Amino acid sequence: MPRLPLPRTRRARLTALGAVVAVLAAATVLWATRDTAPPAVPTQDALLDMPAAPGSAEQVKIDTTTYLPATVPAPAVLLAHGFGGDKNSVADDARELARKGFVVMTWSARGFGKSTGKIGLNDPDGEVADASRLIDRLVAQRQVTLDANGDPKVAVTGASYGGALSLLLAGTDKRVDAIAPVITYNDLAQGLIPNAATPATTTSGTPAAGAFAADGVFKKSWAGIFFSAGSGAAASGSPSAEAPEAGQETDTGATGAAGTAAGAAAALPAGPPGAGGPRGGPADPCGRFTAAVCRAYTELGTTGQASQASVDLLRRVSPASVTSKITVPTLLVQGESDTLFGLDQSDANARQITAAGGKVRTIWYTGGHDGGKPGPQLRGKIADFLWTALDGGDPGTGFSYDVQGTLRANGTPSVRTVNAAAYPGLTGPATERRLLALNGPAQPVVRPAGANPAAVSGIPGLNGVASSSSRLGALFSNDPPGQAAQFSTAPVDSQVVVSGASTVRLQVAADPAHPQPDAVLFAKLYDVGQDGSRVLPANAIAPFRVSGLPADGTPVDVTVTLPGIVRPIEGGHSLRLVVGTTDQGYAAPAAPAVFRIGLAAGGTGLAVPVVPGKSVGSPAPVGQLVGIAVTLAIGLAAVFFAALRRRRATDVDPALATTPLVIEGLRKQYAGGFVAVQELSFRVEPGQVLGLLGPNGAGKTTTLRMLMGLITPTAGSIRVFGHKITPGAPVLSRIGSFVEGSGFLPHLSGRENLELYWASTGRPAEKAHFAEALEIAGLGNAVERRVRTYSQGMRQRLAIAQAMLGLPELMVLDEPTNGLDPPQIHQMREVLKRYAATGRTVVVSSHLLAEVEQTCTHVVVMHRGSLVAAGEVGELAAAGGEATFRVDDPAVAAAALKALSGVTDVDVDGDLVHANLGELPRADGVAALVRAGVAVEQAGPRRRLEDAFLQLVGDQS
Questions:
Q1: For residue range 201-230, what is the model confidence (pLDDT) as tens digits?
Q2: Which class in CATH covers the domain with range 432-612?
């Protein structure tokens, strides 16, 4: 039997092992992504007749679909859709639950999909009564497991609008055994007209309790989007009319379990030109809404405030109206990225149901109306909760929340889950609150006429996309100058995880010159980094109204409850409270006004909620596990391959530890045999400005690219401070370079480009020395302008500033004066001289002889890839027989020199006469001038680098 040939060398064995690892990684991918299509789920469709609403003769039809598990009878789940969707919106979730063994019924609520009737916002006599009759339908079909008393085992779940339905149904129909509402509300009046102010400190023991004060501020952007969705979502019964509020999970994660209302509005069918209202009927501003709901919205949209009748209507259709009657096991799932229904809504549901005697388990996750629907792991937890509750078990009262970090893998941020034994302030101790002192004087703020321009705190439904990028987040968060007061904490010593709603006591006063009895204000809490960059967590904002302001300017104390967030504040970061007068997402008064905002006297500062618990990493889906496995396999292979270069990468010559650059026997040959650099050797000492001089094609750029580790030499070595250069060598961090082009982003300012570049290096901001680099570059105020407005000279100077960041010990520049006009070249020369004056070393390549002569102390001349000369600029320029004489009679002197044998190229330049003496000693030239009666004031070599360069290059041609 023949033997397989085995690799003989260490390099060959490592290469073979790396290949094996790569093959195994590919096999892992194929195995993990093999076809595993889930089994089909049988369904039953029915269009059910429902009684008319009180006072209406209209017969309502509700479109339903029942999803059957493999075995019936089985426990049932009513799965309600989100606002703007229909039963098709939750089809995938229904199939998933059916595969887990539940009988699942979905339906299109009144006014959505193919169902008729008017949208009553979960009216107890409308949508809630419909859901109760659906339970009757399930029992009549004998597909549902019954309790001992003949009641069905049934749970209700849904997101947003559907989540509120589950709460309302549990509070009115005693047959409901468990509920799992997702990203929903407690009080729709507070959800759409919030007021975060209370006259005194009334902090609850729970972590995210909202103020829930009366007379709030209308959340016009979100409300308008949903009213539009409800006005037109039923225009077609086809699935194409489906809005994504309860739709499918998207790749971007921007569509939540209730999806984005912006997406909902965008998904609505426009209809043909001249089309009327919903379903092709006459145009109607109320759309599919009931008359009562339409009146309430019209009032809010036109006045910005709600009458008592409108508030009563909103509370009647809110879970808060029945939570005192809910005693069944409840799982509250709320999103941490949700500017529609924040964590305070879930907190209120938890407190009220617990007070009624119900057991509540709470989960906060990273999604929400702005951040995405629950993923498969969380959906699995919901299903497990429902199984345990319907099976008579105890699903517990635990609490967990997700902490999203800054580390990203394949575009996905890292997330860890913190588990606590109970929701603080309910069955366990009250929430711990850490007090952080706020600093800042009382400040006047202006509300402009029309409340315009308005501050920007986010874009409804798109805040999750914005928060994925700090720069996008900055675009979606803006406070106009003069409209906001700002107060800051000192940097925290170590990480503080804000887990809920912080509170602060403020003083608000009217301007006596322009008294206003009421102030509508907006509070935000920013996370501010060490470099001054700021992030508005979850784009959350707390609107509040302060009434009864004295006309004489006496301040009124008010406690403001900030939005509930989960945010790790890293050590060295601080918190900044911003209180402004406008926000584009809310209805602010149009009259101009001035207020004075300060910290309350004797206030305790910022009270930040902290919920301790046990942290665990979130389980990754199969796709992520495959990615991790492949990444680990590739990393393992990289480790083995890196071993081939390890000795070279750690090769250090201690004798050269203080020498910036030593090149020995350098050669670079490309495929095809072309030799770009050959046998190049030279040395650069500390404090030198070395010019790498040569015509285009001499090999200068190739040499610098090898110096920077961008390409690998064929032979020879390069050492920087004694370290041998290899790709990625750590010593490269001691070099500042401009070799491959700057690649600046034109829409950012010069300073922002520099900050972005430095951040990409991962080094601390304080090590950048921005001020020093910008001073040397001499850009002045232009550094604050966008780069697209820069001239070529300014771009080059910005590139030099980038190379100077960190004040590297060695700076390497390739043709820095390319494309510059003479004045710009002069400016660039001054930039390089200023940097060299700091005592550091510069290597600059150029084909401009005069620039090397005027800027550099030393020069290396290259031609056709080889070294032809090296030394001090003055010595090289003085080589040859050229001489310069300063005389009193240049014309006579020129004639006398021309008469000498062997003298050529005699030129007159003012009182200077230049001549190439050839082999003739300079003293003989002086003697000839004296004999001709010319007074010689000065005689010496003609120091012109151009002539020496041309002579050297010519010798090599």
A1: 555 799 999 999 999 999 999 988 878 777
A2: mainly beta
